[in-house]
From TrEMBL:
InterPro entries: DUF1214 (IPR010621), DUF1214_C_sf (IPR037049), DUF1254 (IPR010679), DUF1254_sf (IPR037050)
Species name: Parasedimentitalea maritima
Pfam families xrefs: DUF1214, DUF1254
Designated name of the protein: DUF1214 domain-containing protein
Location of the DUF1254 domain: 85-204
Every DUF1214 domain range: 354-458
Length: 475
């Protein structure tokens, strides 16, 4: 069973974590720690959960910067990305497009080109907390006709770009995660068209709008993009850096006080002593395990009676437009758990796709890369287009490193069907004899989970009258 099935297990894990990131010999042991140190430990766990979406943005930005993609630059994949694209639950059917900006010194304009030659681009522009400002492109506000999206600070009353769609952005930083829509799949011809269209996206400061606008483009395909936050003791240094660069929102004032108590004070020095570093090194990993447990076992409702499949996106995200700010409270715990698992939100969650998550066996054990499993996908899955099953690392929520392939889908000609039309998919370190075309490899050192994606879902899938089977342990 998981480490966080109950509070007792949670405390047991917290009692002894060796400080690894600094090489010190000190441990944090809650059973012998002072009351003040225990309180700081709980504050640190809470703070890491609170900061999860902000850390997603920071690691996204930093990874792009390391790859040569600076502010107002467009990063793109000329081919469909592989496991080297390390971010939360990425798709691997179309290539990703990236951009980020900073409005601290003035508004920024993001120009989307119109769809062309059978290719469109779709995605979402967000603030640094992953809150959507709007969906853009062929399934967004401009409906593939192209538009200028202008991000301005709150209460801005300065000049505007004519005919631009204007959005107040509460944070200094904002970013976009986009993908081309490729009718007919990711063929070389379609990928070339997508790259050509991507190079018509422009990102620039308002101060440059009257001059010759030149946006740079960087092909990041094949580069290691480490966008997944590393939830170890060093995460508190990243939080300190980010809150110093960002606006403090009124909703977060109490958390800013808690952060100051543990040595993470905005515009103050970050100099943890050995005791505080030991607390950090215990709290960071435990915050992550808590979010993993909450996301896969608590936050999302199970979809099929008696089965372990759950919805990818919980209702709370849609109710609050992904902010988790309710009229009487602010559920940053649920928000942190959700953003452990996703890198992008959407303004309008449609019905063109349907995603399900599976992280456990029927007995409630985490899926273990050392073990062998089988998943039977019934015949006649109620979709208009196709379905796919993809493996992800349980800890990072990204692709399993050095593992290919990570996906099997119903369009693959080599996938063997059973006589009744169902499909058996095998998981494990080694392929069962004769089942290679229906096998997804796992890492024996890592836990993992699955996402089932359904493109063009029919009503019988959405109302759960169709049931997807649980994983079957084979050893």
């Amino acid at each position: 069973m998981g480490w966080f099935n109950n509070l007792k297990a949670f405390k047991a894990l917290a009692f002894g974590v060796i400080v690894a990131s600094t090489g010190q010999a000190e441990e944090f042991d809650a059973s012998t720690a002072s009351f003040a140190d225990r309180m700081n430990y709980y504050r640190a766990v809470d703070a890491a959960v609170w900061a999860m979406p902000l850390m997603n943005f920071k690691f996204y930005r930093d990874a792009l910067a390391e790859a040569g993609v600076g502010p107002n630059v467009v990063g793109y994949n000329s081919q469909v990305q592989d496991w080297r694209f390390q971010t939360a639950t990425p798709n691997n059917t179309t290539p990703y497009i990236h951009a980020y900006w900073n409005i601290k010194d003035g508004p920024v304009v993001f120009e989307m080109p119109p769809s062309a030659d059978g290719v469109g681009i779709f995605g979402t522009i967000m603030d640094a907390w992953q809150r959507p400002l709007d969906d853009v492109g062929s399934k967004g506000r401009d409906r593939g006709l192209g538009a200028k999206y202008m991000m301005v600070p709150p209460n801005y009353d300065g000049p505007l770009v004519p005919n631009a769609l204007v959005y107040e952005q509460d944070t200094n930083f904002g970013f976009a995660v986009l993908r081309p829509i490729l009718a007919g799949g990711a063929t070389e011809e379609n990928l070339a068209k997508a790259t050509a269209l991507t190079k018509q996206i422009r990102v620039y400061a308002l101060s440059e709008a009257d001059g010759e606008i030149a946006t740079d483009y960087v092909d990041v395909y094949g580069l290691p993009l480490e966008m997944t936050p590393k939830m170890d003791g060093d995460i508190y240094g990243h939080i300190h850096e980010m809150i110093g660069e960002e606006v403090v929102l009124d909703r977060d004032l109490a958390m800013m006080g808690a952060l100051a108590r543990i040595g993470v004070k905005r515009n103050g020095p970050f100099e943890p002593d050995s005791t505080m570093q030991a607390i950090y090194d215990a709290a960071g990993p435990n915050a992550l395990e808590y979010m993993i447990d909450q996301y896969h076992r608590v936050l999302n409702p199970f979809v099929f009676e008696g089965k372990k499949w759950s919805a990818l996106v919980p209702d709370g995200s849609r109710e609050t437009e992904w902010s988790y700010e309710y009229p009487s409270y602010y559920d940053y715990v649920a928000r942190g758990a959700l953003y452990y698992a996703i890198i992008t939100s959407v303004k309008n969650y449609g019905t063109a796709t349907y995603y399900l998550d599976l992280a456990e066996t029927p007995d409630g054990e985490w899926l273990d890369g050392r073990r062998n499993y089988k998943l039977n996908v019934p015949a006649n899955v109620p979709v208009r287009d196709f379905w796919s099953i993809t493996t992800y690392d349980l800890v990072t929520a990204s692709y399993l490193r050095d593992i290919n392939p990570s996906t099997i889908d119903s369009t693959m000609p080599d996938v063997v069907k059973n006589d009744d039309g169902s499909v058996d998919i095998y998981f494990g370190p080694d392929a069962p004899a004769g089942k290679e075309s229906n096998w997804l490899p796992t890492d024996p050192k890592r836990r993992f989970f699955l996402l089932a994606r359904f493109y063009g879902p029919e009503p019988s899938l959405l109302d759960s009258s169709f049931i997807l089977n649980d994983m079957e342990r084979m050893d």
